[in-house]
Design a protein that fits this description.
Blueprint: H1 3-11, H2 13-16, E1 30-35, H3 41-53, E2 70-75, H4 78-86, H5 92-95, E3 102-104, E4 109-111, E5 117-122, E6 136-140, H6 148-158, E7 166-171, H7 177-184, E8 188-193, H8 206-214, H9 218-223, H10 239-244, E9 246-247, E10 254-261, E11 272-280, E12 286-291, E13 294-295, H11 299-312, E14 317-321, H12 327-336, E15 342-345, H13 351-363, E16 367-370, H14 374-381, E17 383-384, E18 387-388, H15 395-409
Helix pairs in contact: 11-12, 13-15
């Protein structure tokens, strides 16, 4: 090979990309690429978009090379679209070798010299997809979207340009109805990739550490192997129940609480502080409005998050479990805001016994979720009599239980929460 051919071979995605990362053959509408963390999903998406936008693959879609292609880039938030899909390590602007696009911040769009234009959208605002129209779309981390069904539906109506409109969905799988429907659609080509497939591009020792901790577990099979893991038969919350109580909009809320379950190991990277915000609607139903849980934070770090949510939602009170930190929990919170109204609670029964009455409230339709909270809902649907299948602490779930208990069960005293 000539030096020029060698340089091309070293960077051409059609050569260096794995087969599973290449667009599948055939007449499909949706390419569903489900994979583990770090498996190369984002790189595959960026390369597909760049190849189409720069004109390298337009003929495959029945478009003339000079056509002005319209592209939708949809992520959980606008920040994710910018930080992952565009400017991330494997983002479009980082991998582009020819015809690198320009990002117009004020208009939230990428522009290529070829004439192609890509707009970014957030799952937090489904209505923003009402009006524009596109040739192709890339949906990143679909299973994490806040308003997943509404946003995806709006995108389908907008995907109407060109001879063969197509979309790529890259996501770590979760057993959501929308993913199951996509997989069952004959117009979908489903491809699975695992984290281990991409091991040579990951930090040394990463896979060994993950395999030692999560190998063979439900969480490992989902987050590393990219498997779609169904709910546990003995879980307190089936996925269908959560979908049933999901709402998109709520009226004014009263008696809002921020519940916090501090981690046992302060500041440890694998520790998580569960933080849930919920309030009562006019019908007396508890509505979960935010999962602000944070991993690897110091006590001062998670306390600042709690206070920030307290202010943002104009909450009435913070409910904090003190089994792990005793009086230091309230002291830490008040070191951030001196007058913070804090009610401390202590668990005297097992997690399962505390969660059972809360699960019953879900069955009665007395609790709703204002949007999607994937990490929280994964814990709910994986929580059985012996805890989570990963054996980790159900931190988010614990905070949820305290929040709903404070709003709906405190008056009954099981367990009693004082000061609410």
């Amino acid at each position: 090979m000539t030096p020029e051919e060698q340089r091309y071979a070293a960077s051409a995605w059609s050569i260096i990309g794995r087969k599973a990362q290449q667009p599948p053959p055939g007449d499909w509408r949706t390419w569903l690429l489900m994979g583990g963390r770090g498996s190369g999903k984002t790189r595959a998406g960026s390369e597909w978009i760049q190849a189409l936008a720069s004109g390298m693959r337009r003929k495959a879609l029945g478009m003339a090379t000079g056509a002005q292609m319209r592209i939708a880039l949809v992520a959980e938030t606008l920040g994710d679209a910018r930080e992952v899909m565009i400017d991330g390590v494997s983002g479009i602007c980082r991998i582009a070798r020819d015809d690198r696009p320009r990002f117009e911040t004020s208009r939230r769009r990428l522009v290529w010299d070829s004439g192609a234009v890509a707009q970014i959208f957030s799952s937090e605002d489904p209505e923003s997809l009402r009006g524009p129209q596109f040739d192709i779309a890339w949906c990143d981390e679909l299973a994490k979207w806040r308003h997943v069904q509404e946003t995806f539906d709006m995108l389908q109506f907008a995907l109407r340009l060109g001879a063969r409109p197509r979309q790529l969905v890259t996501t770590t799988p979760r057993p959501l109805p929308i993913l199951k429907k996509l997989m069952a659609d004959p117009a979908t080509v489903t491809v699975r990739i695992a984290t281990n497939d991409n091991v040579r591009h990951l930090a040394p020792g990463f896979m060994a550490a993950m395999a030692a901790r999560y190998g063979g577990t439900r969480l490992g099979r989902q987050e590393l192997d990219g498997e779609l893991i169904e709910d546990r038969d003995d879980a307190l919350w089936p996925r269908a129940l959560i979908e049933k109580v999901r709402v998109r909009q709520t009226g004014p809320l009263r008696r809002i609480v921020v519940a916090v379950d501090p981690p046992a190991s302060a500041g440890a990277k694998d520790s998580c502080c569960g933080i849930i915000v919920a309030g009562l609607d006019r019908d007396g139903r508890a509505v979960v409005v935010e999962d602000g849980s944070i991993a690897g934070a110091s006590p001062a770090g998670w306390a600042r998050v709690v206070v920030g949510l307290y202010r943002r939602f104009d909450a009435d009170r913070v409910v904090a479990e003190i089994n792990q930190g005793g009086d230091m929990v309230a002291a830490t919170l008040r070191s951030v805001e001196a007058g913070l109204p804090v009610t401390t609670v202590r668990a005297t029964r097992g997690k399962w016994l505390r969660a059972e009455p809360v699960a019953a409230l879900y069955e009665q339709g007395r609790v709703a979720h204002a949007g999607s909270f994937p990490a929280l809902e994964d814990q709910m649907c994986d929580f059985g009599p012996d805890g989570l299948s990963s054996a980790r602490s159900p931190d988010r779930l614990d905070a949820l239980v305290w929040a709903v208990t404070a709003l709906l069960l405190g008056a009954d005293g099981q367990p009693r929460v004082r000061g609410i």
